[in-house]
Amino acid sequence: FFTQPISENANCNNTTTMGKKSRRTNRNKSKVKSNKKKLSGANGTATEDKSQSTENVEDILSIGEETETSACDNNDTAAAVATNGHAKEEIEKAEAEDAEVEEEGSVPNGLTESLSLLTDAQRKLALALCEAGQSHLFAHWPKPSGISSPSSQAVAKIKVRFMEQLERMDAGYESRGGLTGYIENAKVLLAKSQAGENPLEGWKPSVPTGNLFEVGTKDYAEMEKVGLGEVGACGFVLVAGGLGERLGYGGIKLALPSETVTGTCYLQYYIETILAIQTKYSASGVKLPLCIMVSNDTSAGTVSLLSENDNFGMDADQITIVQQGDGVPALLDNNAKIALDTKDRYKIQAKPHGHGDIHALMYTHGIAEKWEASGIKWTIFFQDTNGLAFHTLPLALGVSKKHGFIMNSLAVPRKAKQAIGAITKLEHQQTKEVRTINVEYNQLDPLLRATSFPDGDVNDKKTGYSPFPGNINQLVFDLHAYGKAINRTKGAMPEFVNPKYKDEAKTVFKKPTRLECMMQDFPTILEGKTETQFVGFTSIAADLCFSPVKNATVDGVKMQENGTHPGVAATGEADQYEAVAKIMRSIGCKVGVPDPVTFAGITFVPGPEIVLHPGFVSFPGEYQNRFSKPSSVRISANSSLVVSGRCTDLVIESLDLRGALIIDCEEGATGGVIRDLKVCNQGWHKVAVGESEEDEVLRMRGYRINKTETKTITFKKDGTFVESGDSEPLPEGIADLLSPGQTESSEKTKECMCTIQ
User: Where are the alpha helices (DSSP H) in 667-751?
Assistant: First the structure.
C-alpha cells in the first residue's frame, strides 16, 4: 500500500453521490486555454427537467442520436433515430476519428459543441478535466445537430446527468483540490507504487503502549470502575455504510437481527444500550448523541428503520445522519485515467473511498464542536454488525482516562502473522516523529525483519501471542483533542493506493483501482510529542468484544476450515450468548457449556441462549449487583434466559434454570427479586433449515429456534407480577450440564418452586 502524507491545508470531504453520463465523438485539437477564452461568454443553460427518465437510451447511444434529421420528431425516439439513414454512418465515422491519438489536454469536438448545454460550473469542470488528461471521458459525445427532437433532448439530458455526477464527485473531494486534485494525488501514489517504494521506509517499529486485560480480574475491575465514571459523557459514531447483500440479506446490515431469540436488530441494540448508559450514568438533562455514517445505498434504509420504530426510543435531536456518498472515480492506469462504467459510457465507474471519510464528515457537520458544547467528553467509533461492541467500553475509557490518551484503540490478542492489522509504535529515524498506528499484517513482518526484530512477527513465549495486538477499529477519542486535530486538516486522512498489476513492469492493472483512506489512520494528523505520545491501545480477548457479521455462510465455511473465525450470522449470534455467559461465570454464576453443533457447514457453541436487556445490565461491573448471590445462579448448558424490558431494579438472587425462562418488565416497572426459582421445561431447540428456506435471516444462519415450552414472569407497574407457562419437576438423577462430568444432587432437583419479592 502506498500512502500520501497530508499537507497543512489538505482535507477530505464526504465522497458524494453519482448520476449518469459519458461521451464519445471526433475530437477537437484546440487547447483548453483557447476554448476557455472562446467559451467564456457562452450563455447556454442546462436542460431544466434533469430528473425525467429517458426511454431507449441504449438504442439512442448505439446509433448516435444527435446527428439525426427531422425524422426524429417522431415520439418513438428509437424508431426515429433508426429511420435516419445517415446517422449510424456518421457516428461510426466520428468514432473512427476518435480512435486517433490526441494531444494531452485537447477538447473533443462533441464536448466543445455541447458546452451550451452546461452550466458555467460544469463547463469549467469539463475543461479542467480535459486539461488534466481526461479528454477520453467526452470523446464519444456526439455533436448536437441543432434540431430539437425527442432523441436530441434525451441525449442532452444524459450529458447533463453525466456532468452532475462529476460535479458531485468534485464537490466531495473539494478540500483536496476536487477531481483534478484527486488525479494529481493518484499520479503521485501510482508512481510510487510502480517504482516499488516502501511506504514505511525510514520507520522503526517497537511495541506500543497499552494494557492487556482479562474479565474477572482485579485489574479489569479497577480500570472499568474508572471508566464507569466517564461513560455518561460519551458521543457515539456508528460507521454503517454497508448493505447485507454479501451476507445473503436484502436490507441494510443495521436491520439484521443480532440474535434470533428476541429478533433485536443491531441498530435497536446499539440505541437501547446508549439509552441505558444515559439513564444510569449521565448527568441530569444530558442526552448522549449518536452520529450514523451512511452511504447512498444505506441512507434511505437507515432513515426508514429509525422512523418506523420511533428511533427505538431515542429522541430525534440525539441522532445525526451524515452521508458518505457513492465513492471516488476508478482509475484505469498509472496516468490516473478515470474509468467509465463498463455498461454505461455516460456514467463514471465509482469505488468506495473508505471509512476514513467519517472524520471529514465529522468536521464538515461541526459535530465535535456541538458535542463538546453539550458536555460530551469522549467519542466512541464502532461498526455496524458487532454485537459485542459495548461490553468493554468502560474498560477502554478507564485506560484512556488513566493514560491521558487522545486515541485509544480497542484491540484483541493476535497470533503472529495472523491476517489482521497490528497496533504498532513507529519512530522515523530521521525526523524522530513517533506514531502509534495500525500496520497491515502483510507489511508488519518484513518491516520487523528489516529493522530491530530479526525473527519478524513471532509469538511471545509467555503470552503465546504477538506483542503487536490486533486492530478491530473500535476507537475511543478524547473529544476536545479530536476536534482540534480534525480542524487542522478538515478531517482528511492520508490516502493510499493498492493496484493489482498484470505485468512485471507494473504498467497494466488487472482491474481499475482507486485511492482510499481509513479511519484508524487518525494518528497521522497528530502533531508533536504533546499529541503523538498519547496514542495507545486496550487489549482483551475477542470473545468479549469482537464478533462481526461480515461474511456469507459459504465463505465462512472456507474460513473456518482454514482456522479463521468465519464472521457469519450464526457465529455472531452464538458469540453474543457466550460473551454474557463468560461474564456471568467470571463473577461465580454456574453457567453450562454445551457441545458444539454444526448448521449449514458452520460449527459453533450454541448457548446457553442468554439475552439480557441493557437496561437490566450493560457492563461486567454491573453483573454482581444484578446477580447478588452468583453461586446460587445455575443455568444448564441447553437453557435459554431472556430478561427483556427496562428492568432496572430487577435482582436475580437465586435461580436453577433447565429450560426456557423469560423475565419481562413493563415500561415503568421497578422489577423485584427472583429468589429460589427453579424452572424445568422442554425449553427451546435449534432446528436445521435448508437453502429453500424463505426467511433470509434463518437461511443465512442455517437454523430456526423452536420454542417448545417457556415460563414467563412479568413484573407490572403496580409492583405485582404475573406468571405463565408450565414448569415441571426436575427428574431425579438428571445429568447436570453445568460442567462436563458433573451430576446434580437429586435433593436439589425434586421440585420447581418460586419465591418472588
Answer: 696-699
